[in-house]
Design a protein that fits this description.
By secondary structure, the protein is α+β, with helices and mostly antiparallel strands. The chain has two domains: 121 residues; 124 residues, Histidine kinase-like ATPase, C-terminal domain (Heat Shock Protein 90). It is built from eight helices and five strands, in the order αααααβαββααββ. Strands 1-2-3-5-4 form a five-stranded mixed beta sheet, with helices on one face. Helix 2 runs antiparallel to helix 3 and helix 6 runs antiparallel to helix 8. It is elongated, with a radius of gyration of 23 Å.
C-alpha cells in the first residue's frame, strides 16, 4: 500500500495532467474559432462589391489579424514561459524527498493555473468581439493593458465628456485607426510615453494621441503606408485628421469624428 504522502503526490500529478489537458483544449478551441471567423470573413469579402463595405470589412480583418498576432506573441512570450517553468519543476521531481516534491507539484499546479487564466483572457479578446460586445472604450483599455504588460511604455488613456453609442462599423474603423497609430508608435517612434485622450462633445468625438518619441519631418513621412491608412479611414468616417511632429520631441495625432445627431449616452 502507498503511504498517505505518496497517495497525495499521485493525486497532485493526476490533477496537473488534467490541467494540462484543459490548457491544450483551450488552445485548440481558440485556433478553431479564429479559423472559423477568418473563413467567414473571407467569404464575405467575395460577396461585397461596394467600396464602403469593402473598407469596413478590411478593417475588421486587419483587427482580427493584429489581435491574432498579439495572441501568438502572448502565448509564446508569456504563457509559453510559464509552461516551460512548470515543466522544469516536474522534470526535477524527486520521490525521495516528499516534502520537496509536494512544493514542486504545488508550484507547477499554480503556474499552470495562471497560464490557463491568461489563455482565458486571450480567448475573450479574440477578433473584433471585444469591440462589438463592450464598445471602443473597453477595447482601448484592453490595448492599454497589453502595452503596459510589455513594460516598455508608460501609457495614459483617458476619456472626458459624455460617451455615446456609435454604430458597430464606425467603432471598428475607429479602433483600427487608433490601433494603427499605436503600432506606428511602437515600431517607429522609439517612445517611452504614450498618451491617448478621447473627448466627446455635442458634435464631435476628438481623439488625441501623443508620444515623446523621435518625431519626423512631415514632408518626408506623410506618404508612409501607416499614415495613409489612417487618413483613408478617417475620410471613410467623414472625419478630420491633423498630424504634428517635431524631430526629437515627439508626435501628436488628432482625429475629429462627427457624432450622430440622435445619439444615446453609454
Amino acid at each position: 500500500m502507498q503511504n498517505p504522502s505518496t497517495q497525495g503526490i499521485t493525486f497532485l500529478i493526476i490533477g496537473i495532467c488534467l490541467l494540462l489537458l484543459i490548457f491544450i483544449s483551450f488552445i485548440v478551441t481558440i485556433v478553431y474559432k479564429y479559423r472559423q471567423k477568418q473563413n467567414a470573413y473571407f467569404k464575405d469579402i467575395e460577396k461585397l462589391k461596394i467600396s464602403h463595405e469593402n473598407a469596413l470589412l478590411q478593417s475588421q480583418l486587419e483587427i482580427q489579424e493584429q489581435t491574432f498576432q498579439n495572441i501568438s506573441r502572448e502565448i509564446h512570450d508569456n504563457i509559453g514561459q510559464k509552461l516551460t517553468l512548470a515543466k522544469l519543476h516536474l522534470n526535477m521531481f524527486n520521490f525521495e524527498n516528499l516534502d520537496l516534491a509536494k512544493v514542486q507539484l504545488n508550484d507547477s499546479a499554480t503556474i499552470i493555473g495562471e497560464a490557463i487564466n491568461d489563455l482565458s483572457d486571450l480567448s475573450r479578446s479574440m477578433s473584433s468581439e471585444i469591440i462589438l460586445n463592450n464598445g471602443i472604450i473597453k477595447a482601448l483599455e484592453y490595448e492599454e493593458n497589453q502595452l503596459q504588460k510589455s513594460g516598455l511604455f508608460e501609457i495614459d488613456f483617458s476619456v472626458s465628456g459624455e460617451p455615446v453609442y456609435l454604430e458597430s462599423n464606425t467603432e471598428l474603423v475607429l479602433f483600427r485607426i487608433i490601433q494603427e497609430v499605436l503600432n506606428n508608435i511602437v515600431k517607429h517612434a522609439s517612445a517611452s510615453v504614450i498618451k491617448i485622450h478621447m473627448h466627446y462633445n455635442d458634435e464631435y468625438l476628438s481623439i488625441e494621441a501623443k508620444d515623446n518619441g523621435k518625431g519626423f519631418q512631415l514632408t518626408q513621412n506623410t506618404k508612409g503606408t501607416g499614415l495613409q491608412n489612417i487618413k483613408k479611414r478617417t475620410d471613410l468616417l467623414k472625419g478630420k485628421l491633423k498630424i504634428q511632429s517635431i524631430p526629437c520631441q515627439g508626435t501628436e495625432i488628432t482625429l475629429k469624428i462627427p457624432l450622430p445627431k440622435n445619439k444615446a449616452n453609454v
